[in-house]
Amino acid sequence: MGQEVRYRVRGGRPLNGTAFIQGAKNAVLPMIGAALLASKGRTVLRNVPIIQDVRRALELAEYIGAKVEFHEAERTIVIDASQLNDPERAVLPAEIAARFRGSVLFVPALMHRMGHARIEGVGGCNLGSRNLDFHYRGFARLGAEVTEDAERNHINVEAGNLKGGRLYLDTPSHTGTENLLMAAVLTPGTTVIEHAALEPEVLDVIEFLGRMGAKISGGGTGLITVEGVKELAAVEHTIMSDRIDAGVFAMMAAATGGDVSLVGANLDHLGVARWKMEQMGVQFAQQGAVLHVHRDPNTTLRPINAVTSPYPGFATDLQSPLMALATLADGESYIHEAIYDGRFALADELNKMGAKIEVDGTRAIVHGPTQLHGAEVVAHDLRSGAAVVLAGLAATGETVVSPGYPVDRGHSQFATRLTALGADVVREELD
Ligand SMILES: CC(=O)N[C@H]1[C@@H](OP(=O)(O)OP(=O)(O)OC[C@H]2O[C@@H](n3ccc(=O)[nH]c3=O)[C@H](O)[C@@H]2O)O[C@H](CO)[C@@H](O)[C@@H]1O
Ligand SMILES: C=C(OP(=O)(O)O)C(=O)O
Question: What does the similarity note say (predicted)?
Answer without folding.
Answer: Belongs to the EPSP synthase family. MurA subfamily.
